[in-house]
Design goal:
31% of the residues lie in helices and 25% in strands. With 338 residues, it is of the alpha/beta class.
């Protein structure tokens, strides 16, 4: 088996998860480099990695460069992706900078793996909330068509990075130690715009067109691109919730052709990357705590709209750091080498 020279760019929560996933999935690696803004050593599950300061010359001899990406700001790929491609690497970027570039394929392997072939050096990894939604909905769309999607996301703190996870932890500790008033005097890590402990707020990203956030527009634009279905009417509300890891989504769909709940369940049982957990009599349904550390997209609470025979609700959960980021990027790399 041929082995490849890989680089992981970024040593934050997603970069660390990429290193973990590469090892767990036994990706054929000849040489592995880790680059970030500053040199240091990191430990991942007992393995020590030497992180090198990133420069253009770092990409000499690299076959595949996995950019961990940063939501909400320009990522390292803006500076270094073109240089990496120039030096012979294929870039897989987890950031938002290239997703809607018409010359860059946006890929979820369970949905549009063939688009990898269209790359010109850069392949984009979608937003975490988009990934799990299209994995769950694409089998339904392929069978009966979907004409409308209404989605509310409940997104974990880790989706906003390490600082947001620390903010949630600090807030909980302060409340436990001295009540809610203690939040007013504590020196908090303010990675998020509002208190998250014992709270939730409908604000992820920046408010843009129509007073939707850019996170909400990502669900629209990225879904259209990945599923090659620009006519689907999509609207979204994205909410930050006091969960460490694991995004949940309440999704309403309206299909083009008739289908039953049993028919949807049959489709999803056979769908790649999907695990159906739907036994409400036994209180079984997907929850973020059970998705953490796993690569699948979990679906449950499937039910028909009482007033619309073509309307259905689904509850969709996935680990945002794995399937929503690191695992999907590594899966793209697996498709690339295959």
């Amino acid at each position: 088996m041929k082995k490849y020279n890989l680089a992981v760019i970024g040593a934050g929560v997603v970069g660390i998860e990429m290193l973990r996933v590469l090892k767990q999935r036994k990706f054929p690696i000849n040489n592995l480099k880790v680059f970030a803004r500053s040199a240091r050593e990191i430990n991942v599950d007992g393995d020590t990695y030497s992180v090198e300061s990133i420069t253009s010359e770092c990409f000499d001899g690299i076959d595949i460069a996995l950019f961990a990406g940063t939501e909400g700001e320009k990522g390292a790929a803006v500076t270094y992706a073109a240089e990496a491609v120039k030096r012979g690497a294929v870039v897989i970027d987890n950031g938002a900078d290239f997703r809607m570039d018409k010359n860059v394929p946006l890929v979820v392997p369970e949905v549009n793996a063939a688009d990898v072939k269209k790359h010109k050096g850069i392949i984009a990894n979608p937003n975490c909330s988009t990934v799990q939604m299209v994995v769950a909905l694409n089998p339904i769309h392929k069978k009966v068509g979907i004409k409308r999607i209404i989605v509310t996301t409940l997104q974990a703190s880790s989706g906003a990075g390490k600082g947001a996870v620390e903010q949630l932890k600090e807030e909980i500790n302060l409340i436990v130690q001295g009540g809610f008033n203690n939040l007013q005097v504590g020196a908090l890590n303010k990675a998020m715009p509002q208190q998250l402990a014992y709270n939730c707020f409908p604000h992820i990203g920046s408010f843009v067109k129509g007073d939707y956030t850019n996170e909400e527009w990502k669900l629209v634009d990225e879904t259209h691109k990945i599923m090659h279905a620009p006519k689907i009417k999509i609207t979204a509300t994205t909410v930050r919730v006091p969960v460490r890891t694991g995004h949940s989504e309440s999704i309403y769909i309206e299909t083009v052709k008739p289908i039953t709940v049993a028919g949807i369940k049959k489709l999803l049982t056979k769908a790649p990357g999907v695990v159906l957990i739907d036994d409400v009599r036994s209180n079984l349904y997907p929850m973020p705590k059970d998705s953490e550390g796993k690569d699948e997209t979990f679906v449950g609470r499937i039910r028909q709209d009482a007033f619309n025979k073509k309307g259905f609700w689904l509850w969709v959960v996935a680990d945002n750091l794995r399937k929503g980021a690191a695992t999907n990027a590594v899966q793209i790399a697996e498709v690339l080498i295959s």
